[in-house]
Amino acid sequence: MKKVLLMALLCLIFRQTCLAQDYIIQDSVMIKTKDGHLLSAVVVRKNNQKEPLPTALMFFIYSDTERSIAIAKIAADHGYIGIVADTRGKRLSPETIEPYEHEARDVNSVIDWIVAQPWSNGKVGMYGGSYSGFAQWAATKYLHPALKTIVPYVAAIPGQGVPMENNIFINANYQWAFYVTNSKYLDNKVNNDNERWRKMRQNWYSSGAAYNRIDSVDGTPNPWLQKWLKHPDYDSYWQNMVPYQEEFSKINIPVLSITGYYDDGQISAMQYLKDHYQYNPKAQHYLIIGPYDHFGAQQGGKPVLKGYQVDPVALINTREITFQWLDYILKNGKKPEILKNRINYEVMGTNRWQHAPSIEKMADKHLKFYLTDAQSDSSYLLSTVKPQKSGSLEQVIDLADTKSWYNDYYPSSIIKKELDRSNGLFFMSEPLTQDIQINGMFSGLLAATLNKRDIDIGVVLYEVSPENEYFELSYFFGRASYLNDHSKRNLLQPGVKETMAFFKTRLVSKQINKGNRLLVVLNINKNEFAQVNYGTGKDVSLETIKDAGEPLKINWFNESYVEIPVKEFIE
In this structure, what DSSP letter does residue 87 have? Predict the structure, then answer.
């Protein structure tokens, strides 16, 4: 016993390779990249390993030695060499911490090192969520021959999902840059200081200061935010981080993506999948999606999600599915039972999984609903019939007023008893005459004239019960000037009718019962949770409340519509 304790102490002091019960643990491995930088990693093997094995690799920025060892042990327990490698500059790496910028090359340097080790059989699979999901896609930009599969959960796309969504910079994770770059590990104190960030948002918004001054309001410079703000387009800075366009055509390894209907970053995960299939129609890309949020998808869900009682069948074990998938690809094992087709989704309200060969095949038709100017109780009519006579609804917003105009993005509650009707336009359908499933991503086209050169738009889709309970299904949130091309801004023409098509919404699947109605809420976005677009056409980050000028006037024409993918034949 004393000998074991002495060895453990020596391992702790001198960071040696440790033999701990069934494991050989190396927690201070240093790996040199091709361009001479040093990365740190944890390697865990079972001490009874006799033959070379495949490697299960996680690459992440949330450095914590004990956590990395625990993660790598799980991989070892599943019959793999478990490795957790750190982003450049984190943990034991002497380099500067630069989030997102080096993964495309650095991950492949780690794989180079892995396949040169005597315990490696030359096959590597990657897995993990959020930043680790991004790192997997980054690695495929220069696909290493030893990388045989990736399993990204809730994967981020820098420049599309974070720190901006559809070209709007958002404040939801403003503090994240401090959290991961203030030290070699994590600054939990600053990350959890919710009161500080709440005051910062409120004080910035009420002051009318430019968005690029938000860190001055806080009192601590945020150099990463300032760097990102110099790239409001999805330009080469962002494009260099992950595969872009034709580069997806070269990704010929099997992929298993996992995300959730209420994952705040779902549009990133879905964009990877859509781009992969667009540029490589023969891609072996599978999807598991259900009623999960960002953290829930990485675990397999939780029984109650933001007030919604999740169907029991939707609760899965993400970890076990991951290793079943790795066994399937790397060890000729059995495919996970849940993967009966490319797209695997739980239909909320039915307690059933369904399966489709593509996102498009989730639905058998699209219902087009027009945003009419016909009054219907306290709302306007959301009609399946196009109005015969052209009409419009006027919306006037004083951008110099610090009143908030909200869209229900990042919803805190999925089910609500009432909605704030003090701003925005509400379009309610007639009660449905049959049961349907909404399966997929809704889209739409907005026709309008306005007196500004740009606006930020929000469109939210709800199911409304006969008892007037509101169930949030999906939403869109984006900048009008980037709807046609997220890599190039195209300003609107004041006084000229514009048609603004949107499609980057959240995928959802839910049973909608006969007698329920659908509600679409259309609004502009002006609040403390994102940039304020004053519509001058200048860089939005430089605009201040002094740029508000005359009130924003929008005429929304009744030819505007949303298209909702539905399945009418329900098995």
Answer: P
Instruction: Write out the H or E segment, with its range, that includes residue 179.
Output: helix 176-181
On whether the CB atoms of residues 175 and 197 are closer than 8 A, the answer is: yes
**16: pLDDT strictly greater than 90:** no
Residue 472, strand partner residues: 462
Distance CA 343, CA 259 (A): 12
Q: What is the pTM of this model?
A: 0.95
**Measuring CA to CA, how many Å separate 99 from each of 36, 135, 174, 223?**
18, 10, 14, 12
CA distances from 104 to 36, 49, 65, 264, 278 (A): 15, 31, 23, 24, 21
Q: For residue range 143-192, list pLDDT tens digits in order.
A: 999 999 999 999 999 999 999 999 999 998 899 999 999 999 999 999 99
CA 179, CA 527: separation in Å to the nearest integer?
A: 24
CA dist., res. 267 & res. 132, Å (int): 16
**pLDDT of residue 7 exceeding 80:** no
Question: Residue 10 pLDDT > 60, yes or no?
Answer: no
Query: Angle of helix 266-279 relative to helix 131-140, nearest 10 degrees?
Result: 20
Q: What are the φ and ψ backbone dihedral angles of 178, each rounded to 5 degrees?
A: -70, -40
How many whole angstroms separate alpha carbon 274 and alpha carbon 401?
Answer: 40
Instruction: Give the three-state DSSP class for 57.
Output: strand
Rounded Cα distance between 261 and 372, Å, is: 28
List, in sequence order, the alpha helices (H) in 331-456. none
CA dist., res. 502 & res. 478, Å (int): 8
Q: Which residue has the tokens 């009682």?
A: 309
pLDDT in tens, 351-370: 999 999 999 999 999 999 99
